[in-house]
Design a protein that fits this description.
Length: about 110
Amino acid sequence: MSDSIIGNEFLPNVHIEKISYQIINRQTSKARVTISLYDTFDRTWSIDDKFRGYLRVILVGAYSKSLIDNVTSGDTRINKLVSGDLYTQEIITEFMESDVFCRWSKV
């Protein structure tokens, strides 16, 4: 896989694969976000049990455009957000494992 998918450091890149959004009624909506982390064919971080024990992915959703802009620009850190500002915050520690093989050619 290319470096843009995997990254070129030991820490994995996290990719948003799919977002589904459903309006239930006037007060309720539902979002489903599918994320992926990829490793090289030879596997580095994904076979390291100690590393995987520390691995956490935080998925944050927010309504406020100014809050989103501040997080995007780096003016506000995600770990400093309070729950009233957020739509949701999920800390993911359990991951499903599957094999994905991609082919590409270098230009």
